[in-house]
Amino acid sequence: MNAYNKNLVYIAACIGMVFFGIAFIVMGSVLPSLTAKYSLDAVGSSSLVSLLPVGVLAGSLLFGVVVDRYGYKLLLAVSTLFTLFGIEGLSFFEDLNILRICIFLIGLGGGMLNGSTNALASDISDDKERGSRLSILGVCYGIGALGIPLLLGILSKSYHYQFILQRTGLLMLLSILYFIAIKFPEPKIKQGFPFKQAIQLVKEPLLLIMSFFLFFQSGIEGLTNNWTTSYLHGRIAVGNDEVALGLTFFVLGMTVSRLILSYLLRIIKHEYILMGGIMTAVTGTIILNYAFDLHFAAISLFITGFGLAAGFPVIISYIGTAYKNISGTAIGLAMFIALTGNTLLNFAMGFISDSFGISSFPVFIIVLLLIQAIILFTNSKKLKKVSDTSIKNN
Known about the structure:
Elements: H1 6-38, H2 42-49, H3 51-70, H4 72-92, H5 96-123, H6 130-155, H7 161-181, H8 195-201, H9 205-233, H10 240-264, H11 270-289, H12 294-308, H13 311-322, H14 327-356, H15 361-378, H16 380-392
């Protein structure tokens, strides 16, 4: 069995999660420039952006079986390379068809990075510290997600977006060398792909319960990112830049909360934190419903993000505890279901908006949060058993 340095490996996971934050946000940050450069209409812009979540879904589904069979070193290097090629392609290529391939690669690499870094942080942690480490990992996502638009905003007066993306790619290349240089945990499955085990996981009630909690979690986060600007435009007379700035408070709230959670998850039962987070997010969404200016909207988004922050770290921690022998595949399945929720609930919001108006957006979010609360209440015994297992092991 190979000896690896847990701290060096955790740093690798954090680096990978920063890159996922960049991959997930980069299209929204450069889309206005691409739209102007290629004279795209709304349909053309949408067709470009839609390839990113398709890639993320594919990467989230694939990474688990690859990690469990071949380990983390290969997957982290390859997924970062995919993201690197995609981002560099946005800055170097002029052909729209090649750009579409690049955007898919960004999503594919990002989806693999998201899943593999969560699985890696879970695997190298004992049961007591797992939730805390996953929360810090979430902070790294916030650094990437906030960092790229901030860099583009600050440097765009002096440099084209292509220059900034190229330098970001150079940082990714250096990180690949770091991944290659350090030792990682051995693969869990030495021969063959774990397809049989993956199929058996689909029948696991506990995993499905946790995955469907993440189905709504991912949907709520995606809805907030995608629909808040449209909602605020219908209520507050502000420009696009100001609304976009207000939306960053949502990510900021999640990032600050996860810093705090890295401590609280060590001393407070996880199920209490989850329920408290849902109630906090409901409060923030109610404030958003009555927000009459950008300041109140920013405060409400911060509170909502603060409340939602616990969802992914806690549930992934539960999955890592319950399915240690095949954690990559289990987390991969959960991530795939979660991202499917993001896609389907965004489609549902489009239908609701057309039928009842954009003003129904906060009500829809509150309904989804209450569904999450019902999932927790009705399955509290099953989830408590996972928590008790963590406590006994420490």
